[in-house]
Write a structure and sequence with these properties.
Elements lengths: L1 E7 L5 H19 L2 E6 L3 H8 L5 H9 L2 E4 L17 H10 L2 E9 L12 H4 L4 E7 L10 E5 L2 E5 L6 H15 L5 E6 L5 H14 L6 E6 H10 L6 E4 L1 H13 L8 E6 L4 E5 L18 H13 L4 H16 L2 E2 L9 E2 L2 H15 L1
Parallel strand pairs: 1-2, 1-3, 3-12, 5-10, 8-9, 8-10, 13-14
Antiparallel strand pairs: 4-5, 4-11, 6-7, 11-12
Helix pairs in contact: 1-10, 1-12, 6-7, 8-9, 10-11, 11-12
């Protein structure tokens, strides 16, 4: 298979994370006989410095032509006071719109060897944690027009929690299709006791679920779910929800492991194309830039999700994930996940461990 991939290495620690991910991706493709065509794309901070535009037209064109986009860390504090359309993050926002991505997928699992880092009690983590968030990213307040005005009580601002059946169905279908390959259970989160948009969400999810008779569907209010997921995470598998609710609860889910840097995110379009990023899309600690401290596993995981969702290469994706798991079980740790008795390695060294493991676990 030919794999045409646009690569945006990103800002700050982005290039350090991307290098090991590309090396691991090349190794997997070589092992399975695929031709990997990588197109380096100038975007985000690099493009601002060169063109004062986070996503120049040539870069956008290259991403449109690719089957998938690997996107590294984005955003630096020095750009914070620029208008939104001139900040690095705008490159991702525009890509989402231009590629017509509709749904975010974020798998989360607890690695047994790192369970000590979880803020949850051992009696909870001992039962495991393995679920996937499926979140709409086409509707809701985060995609709404931003309205500001002067009202009776001074300045006022608002957005619209807008949904229609098509937006909900697009994400619902991805959730149910994913559930068929897992435990055949979906829970949908909403606030239908008070929000009309959530009532539409729940009804549309239910209508879609009726066409998947083999899948168990349940509904839960978002506030109840936020508590229950900490109390009994093993009771969740595929979790589908709206844009704003998903933005919050998926961050809760990754932080429950104590290792949010280990996870990746997929943003999928209806035609199968996708944007693939680490879960920590904006690394908060700029003091580590260039010091070979950042953990590359989230970016490597993004490459695995790309193999699975855009190219349909499940065996190759599993091989990459198993190589990561072996590196962790062998005790390798970057500074952010280091525990006494484990082996402290640099960003590149962690990548080399993963590459070394690929043939062994295939």
């Amino acid at each position: 298979m030919n794999l045409d991939v646009a690569v945006i290495k990103g800002d700050g620690v982005g290039p350090e994370m991307m290098k090991p991910a590309l090396e691991a991706l090349k190794e997997v493709c070589s092992l399975y006989g695929h031709k990997l065509n990588l197109q380096q794309v100038v975007a985000s901070g690099e493009a601002i410095e060169a063109f004062y535009n986070p996503l120049p037209e040539n870069s956008l064109s290259a991403c449109r032509k690719a089957s998938a986009v690997l996107f590294g860390n984005t955003g630096l504090s020095k750009y914070r006071n620029l208008p939104l359309e001139k900040r690095p993050e705008y490159a991702l926002m525009r890509l989402r719109k231009e590629l017509d991505v509709t749904t975010n997928i974020r798998p989360v699992r607890l690695y047994k060897d790192l369970s000590e880092l979880s803020p949850l009690k051992e009696r909870i983590t001992s039962r495991g944690l393995d679920f996937v968030f499926v979140r709409d990213i086409a509707g809701g307040v985060l995609c709404s027009e931003k309205v500001t005005s002067l009202g009776l009580h001074g300045r006022e601002a608002y957005e619209y929690e807008y949904y229609n059946e098509l937006i909900v169905r697009n994400t619902a279908k991805i959730a149910f299709d994913l559930a068929q390959k897992r435990k055949k259970a979906v829970v949908s989160l909403d606030k239908s006791n008070v929000l009309e948009s959530s009532r539409l969400w729940r009804k549309t999810i239910q209508d879609t679920g009726n066409r998947y008779q083999q899948i168990s569907l349940s509904h839960c209010y978002i506030d109840t779910a936020a508590m229950k997921i900490m109390e009994s995470p093993w009771s969740f598998d595929v979790i589908v929800t709206s844009n704003l609710f998903g933005d919050i609860i998926s961050d809760e889910g990754t932080q429950m492991t104590g290792t949010p840097c280990l996870y990746a995110s997929a943003e999928l379009a209806k035609d199968g194309r996708g944007i693939y990023t680490p879960n920590q899309l904006h690394h908060p600690d700029e003091s580590i830039i260039g010091k070979q401290i950042v953990n590359p596993i989230g970016m490597i995981g993004a490459a695995a999700l790309m193999l699975r969702f855009t190219f349909g290469l499940e065996e190759e994706a599993c091989t990459l994930e198993k190589a990561v798991e072996k590196a962790l079980s062998d005790g390798c740790s970057t500074k952010d996940i280091w525990l006494s008795g484990r082996i402290l390695v640099s960003t590149d060294e962690m990548g080399k461990e993963v590459v070394k493991n690929i043939k062994e676990v295939s």
